[in-house]
Amino acid sequence: MRAVSLTNRGGRKNNEDYVGYANSDKLWCFVVCDGLGGQSFGEVASEIVCETVCKSFEKAPELSGKALYRYIEKAASVLGEERESTKSNMSSTIVALVTDGEKAVWAHSGDSRLYYISKKRISQITDDHSIAFRDFKEGIITFDEIRTSPNQNKLLSSISDIDDLNFDVSEVIDLKKGDAFVLCTDGFWEYVYEDDIEKSFAKTKSPKEWLEKMLESLHENEKENNDNYSAIAVEV
Fold it and tell me: What single-letter DSSP state applies at residue 172?
């Protein structure tokens, strides 16, 4: 299994994204977060959530939906304490993947996404917890129009505290050789289209090359003052 990550502030002054990973023997945990809250609180929130999930995994590494739920639950508890002490409303999206290369489970909250690639095609995409995605599900807009919708960044859930915990956890799935994942914030998928993800995957031989190709697509499509963008590419 190979993986590579990137995070960049894009056209903004601060980078409120945070990426991290943890490893225990053959088991890996990959995490991408996008902080919310303004006045630098977004940076604090994404770091707390990401680091807490990774540390919780290191203390009790396990590949299961229940374990992943506990890791994120702990992150929400720690962030809730920080919110209370700072009197802030900061929160963070999250997308997290736990895998040993043979099986995988993931979880997410907000509009940070996981793309699962199998047989060189996108097999699954997590559902955004946003008003724009809800509009798509209701047939009001198309999937591609989520990217340009004024409701794209209006989230229906994020990690904030233990009393307001709302996130999705997948089933544990079996993997095949050549399967791959992209975990990314909205600043990445907004400009890297699904077709770009598949084509760049087919043309490259490593996660590093794949991520570099996707980054080329991002730069071709990005607009001035674009959001922070972050991604982790994982190949089994």
Answer: P
